[in-house]
Amino acid sequence: MGCDKQQILIVDDEEINRIILKGVFEEDYEILEAEDGRDAIQQIESNSGIVLVLLDLVMPVLNGFEVLEYMQEHDLIEKLPVILITGETVGDSEDQAYSYGIADVMHKPFYPYIVKRRAQNIIELYLNKKNMEKRLKEQEETIKLQEKRAREDNEFVIHALSSIVEFRNFEAGEHIRRIKYFTKTLLELLMKNFPEYGLNEKQIDEMVRASALHDIGKIAIPDSILLKPGTLTPEETAVMRTHTSVGCDILKRFCENQKDDFYRYCYEICKYHHERWDGNGYPEHLAGNTVPICAQVVAIADAYDELVSPRVYKSAYDAGESYNMIMNGECGQFSPDILECFKLARDDFFNTVEVMSLFDFA
């Protein structure tokens, strides 16, 4: 029955003191005893139910400070309260003891009922603290689980919406996976080689996920234009270009009350991924870094994938030719910094095109 009780460790080289303290607490606690510091450490190592240590200061083998040193080194002081019980009255010793983070100091001779009351208050305080930390940890785990589920739900919606566009284009799903992969590769190179953009891993992850919705507005483009095997007329081109604005209208319905960066990236990428560095893109003819960096990166990723992929209106260009067309400005002017990253990613992009049907880059 005693083993079910919480444990108090009494550490004192004088047996009479241990007997007195044991008599104070043994009705409510299981009592462990140690007659020196070494024995105290062994008791602490061997028992997980200790809720308080009553520690003498002057002892043979290892003294009270050496026990505190051990407890500090093993991160036990915050978890296991210590009341120093000592016959010394020197202030420096108390200051030194408190510097270790002990809970209290009591001087011999002591009044048993005072020791008991103060000890119980300290035990209750530490147990409440431990329970609060446990609850906070449980709440943190719950929040993480909720965030994970929300992310999975978001990924499902993103995949579903982007797949609709691919289905209408008679694509097998590789386009979105490659766009995400190309975007991630370029952003990581930009973060590494151009720190002035202030990119971090979290931003990159959100921009990559947002890139999947860059063409969501094509849902609203008529099949006669979207699937036309020949060159579009000027009027048809104008309709096709509305997919950037239409996509933003669609996203606003999903993101009306959303304020975080991910939804902003979705909107910026959808609207501006056809803008160009020299201002000759659309829909707003933005130039330079007035185009959000996420949209600039997706612009190159999308242009490259457009070139290397077969479409109803064209055959695929090979990777080398596609690379040269982008570098030579045949797909519009892009940011010099991102073009530099595109150069660094050249072999990686080439290899991706070669094996794009073998790997899932989602």
Overview of the molecule:
This protein has about 350 residues and is of the alpha/beta class. The protein is about 60% helix and about 5% strand. The protein is built from 15 helices and five strands. The chain has helices spanning about 15-25, 35-45, 65-75, 90-100, 110-170, 175-195, 200-210, 225, 235-240, 245-255, 260-270, 295-310, 320-325, 335-345, 345-355, and strands at about 5-10, 30-35, 50-55, 80-85, 105. β4 (about 80-85), α4 and β5 (about 105) form a beta-alpha-beta unit. It is elongated and about 105 Å long.
Essential attributes:
single chain; 362 residues; alpha/beta; five-stranded parallel beta sheet; 58% helix; 7% strand; elongated
Topology:
Elements: E1 7-11, H1 15-25, E2 30-34, H2 37-46, E3 50-56, H3 64-73, E4 82-86, H4 91-99, E5 104-107, H5 112-168, H6 174-193, H7 201-211, H8 223-226, H9 234-241, H10 243-255, H11 261-272, H12 293-308, H13 319-327, H14 336-344, H15 346-355
Parallel strand pairs: 1-2, 1-3, 3-4, 4-5
Strand content of the residues, in percent? 5-15%
Shape: elongated
Strand order of the largest sheet: 2-1-3-4-5
Helices, by number, come to: 15
Mean pLDDT: 87
- Low-pLDDT runs: none
Major sheet: 5 strands, parallel
Rg (CA only): 34 Å
Number of strands: 5
Fraction of helical residues: 55-70%
First-last Cα distance: 58 Å
Helix/sheet category: alpha/beta
H and E order? EHEHEHEHEHHHHHHHHHHH
